[in-house]
Write a structure and sequence with these properties.
Order of helices and strands: HEEHEEEEEHHEHEHEHHEHEHHE
Mean pLDDT: 79
Largest sheet: 8 strands, mixed
Number of helices: 11
Low-confidence stretches: 1-60
Radius of gyration: 20 Å
Number of strands: 13
Shape: globular
Strand order of the largest sheet: 6-7-8-9-10-11-12-13
CATH architecture of the largest domain: Alpha-Beta Barrel
Bound molecules: iron/sulfur cluster
């Protein structure tokens, strides 16, 4: 396994420009992006996969952009333009059954401070536009309309809405607004987080949401940095704070072969949880290969290319390891 620092090569070596067309200055673009032809070969699959249209351009021109587009200029002299339908929430998924209780509508927030090797949504990692109040009102109203379309399913199944990502804590104002609006309408809410965010944001979310889905991946600082791009201390400290407040938390453990599945990692997670938290329920999320095609399309290295989902034996072994330590285990979200 190569060092994780190479993982986001496509992004790190790129100049990510969030466009406000009014401020757009084409003089800033490097010469190699001036040119003659454009290749729209990636457009259709991305429309289908992410509701985002991506044009891979060898040349850019003013008419190719609209407000809120994100351009990634790669070091291999290719450019990607993400015409994101909504630059704050990049996908809305209906009838989700793995993102909290019942049937749910899941809103995927744009932006994540981590870059996990196994991420199913690598397109979510680039940070979004900073939202202003006027835009916030419009975006929140639009998203609430979408959420309320599925009210009948929430009522029948004990479901609701899940704010996922990306990392929803990256857009606290929008998240708080949506949580408040959902509470007014008595819609059950979950927030799916990596825990890598400001503690005051997280504690406020805990007051406003009905349930927090909290990932615990790796306990070792070096391994966490290697496989997610950031250290683990903040994630662990934040979980301790939630526990102190007795916040409603559902722990989730992504079982990733060769990364999180070692006896040592699982043993240390168990010891940490027993010593520092009140939580004794855990959901194991086995690695699956959905979303792997995005890596090639986005021109970023896919470290999971040759890694297969965990076997039934491995799942049973990990389940037993948690259960024998007093945990109640669920396989899946
Ligand atoms: S925390 Fe989630 S969204 Fe962020 S990089 Fe990791 S898997 Fe992807």
């Amino acid at each position: 396994m190569a060092q994780h620092s190479f993982f986001k090569k496509g992004f790190e070596n790129a100049q990510n420009i969030v466009l406000n067309k009014a401020d757009l200055c084409f003089d800033d673009l490097p010469e190699e992006f001036e040119g003659k032809s454009k290749d729209m070969g990636y457009c259709l699959p991305f429309l289908i996969l992410f509701s985002i249209s991506v044009l891979r351009l060898r040349e850019v021109g003013e008419n190719d952009f609209k407000n809120g587009d994100l351009i990634v200029l790669n070091d291999d002299h290719t450019a990607m333009i993400y015409q994101v339908q909504n630059p704050y929430v990049f996908k809305i998924q209906r009838y989700s059954i793995h993102d909290g209780p019942g049937i749910r509508t899941t809103l995927f927030f744009q932006g994540c401070p981590l870059s996990c090797c196994w991420c199913h949504n690598p397109e979510s990692q680039a940070m979004p536009l900073k939202i202003n109040m006027e835009e916030m009102d419009k975006v929140a109203a639009f998203l609430m309309e979408e959420i309320e379309k599925d009210l009948i399913f929430y009522d029948d199944s004990g479901g609701g809405v899940t704010f996922s990502g990306g990392e929803p804590l990256c857009q606290p104002q929008l998240l708080f607004r949506l949580l408040d609006l959902c509470r007014e309408k008595q819609i059950h809410t979950c927030v799916d987080t990596s825990g890598y965010g400001e503690v005051k944001t997280l504690l406020k979310v805990a007051q406003k949401a009905d349930l927090i889905l909290y990932d615990i991946k790796l306990i070792d600082e070096t391994a966490h940095k290697k496989y997610t791009g950031q250290g683990v201390d903040l994630v662990l400290d934040n979980l301790k704070q939630l526990s102190k407040q007795k916040a409603a938390v559902r722990l989730r453990f992504p079982l990733i072969p060769q990364m999180t599945d070692t006896d040592e990692n699982i043993g240390r997670i168990i010891a940490f949880l027993k010593e520092n938290t009140i939580y004794r329920d855990i959901h194991i999320l086995p690695f699956h290969r959905a979303g792997q095609g995005k890596y090639e399309a986005l021109n970023i290295i896919n470290y999971m290319k040759d890694i297969q989902p965990p076997s039934d034996e491995m799942l049973a072994k990990v389940k037993e390891q948690f259960e024998s330590n007093g945990f109640s285990v669920t396989l899946g979200g």
